[in-house]
Amino acid sequence: MRALLVALLMLVAPTATADPVPRIIGGGPASQAYSFVASLQNTNGGHLCGGALVQSGWVLTAKHCVTGTSPSNLRVRVGSVNRTSGGTLELVTQFVQHPGSDVALLRLRAPVTHQPVQIAVSVPIGSTVRLLGWGRTCATCTDPLPLGLREVDAPVLPDSRCGTGPAELCVGGDGRGACQGDSGSPAILKVGTVWHLAGAASRGTTAVCGQGPWIYSDASAHRTWIRNITGL
After folding, report:
1. Is 209 helix (H, G, I), strand (E, B) or coil?
2. What mean pLDDT is predicted for residues 164-190?
3. CA 41/CA 13 separation, integer angstroms
4. Residue 229 phi/psi, 5° resolution?
5. Is residue 167 part of a domain?
6. Residues 136, 97 within the same domain
7. Is 92 helix (H, G, I), strand (E, B) or coil?
8. Which CATH number goes with the domain that contains 59?
9. 166 and 81, same structural domain?
10. What is the pTM assigned to this prediction?
């Protein structure tokens, strides 16, 4: 099982030239604007991973999205459902990698004016979260690159379904979930009328996207770490 997860992690890890088809499994076009949604890109504008604005100058993404590169190779477009236009395009000057989880914080060159997302206090098993991203709609898609953000609602499953622990979430499956290009993208939980950040996409549990659940790093389990780094 460990070898399979390592192989899947390699599948979703970006490269400097990668520009994966940006969609999400089982979903549709974004139904609304999300002020906090972010596309992590190389300096040529190629989409690498997703992210979420958690403070005016900081974006949360997956750690493996920045492993092996440097901040000078990265930029972020924040606050637009179109990864090539709108919102605010800002350079990355620093990233801080969590020592034990697949999460990282990116410091932007300058704060942006978009509204950050609040961090969820908890993400209960059985709750429905909304997955956002610019990742593939299927494991073998070769369509031209769409520009628009995708979304799908999916359940939070018991840890036993993914073999996850308290710092991770088991999400989706049944034809709904993330895929290549969705790493670091947010899962969000609606609390009343406000979206809260539930997690960041980390890796799959099956070789084919959508056949099994995806593992997301639990944002609520990293609240203290996020606050200590960003001053949130």
Report:
1. coil
2. 91
3. 13
4. -80, -45
5. yes
6. no
7. strand
8. 2.40.10.10
9. no
10. 0.87
Give me the domain span that covers residue 66: 37-116+223-230
Shared domain for 137 and 215, answered yes or no, is yes
Q: Which residues contact 157 (CB under 8 A, 6 or more apart)?
A: 125, 170, 171, 172, 173, 213
Contact 117, 186 (CB under 8 A): yes
- Whether 75 and 142 map to the same domain: the answer is no
The CA dihedral of 70, 216, 119, 16, to the nearest 10 degrees, is: 20
Please, how many CA atoms are within 13 Å of residue 91, restricted to the half-sphere of its CB?
A: 8
Q: Each residue of 72-105: pLDDT tens digit? A: 999 999 999 999 999 999 999 999 999 999 999 9
Q: Is residue 6 part of a domain?
A: no
Per-residue model confidence as pLDDT tens digits over 133-175: 998 766 676 665 457 999 999 999 999 999 988 899 999 988 8
Q: Of 191, 157, 186, which Cα lies nearest the Cα of 171? A: 157
My answer on whether 131 and 205 are in the same domain is yes
**Number of domains the chain contains:** 2
CA distance 180 to 8: 9
State the Cα–Cα distance between residues 27 and 177, nearest whole angstrom.
8
**What does DSSP say about strands 118-119 and 194-204: parallel, antiparallel, or unpaired?**
parallel
Residue 217 belongs to a domain: yes
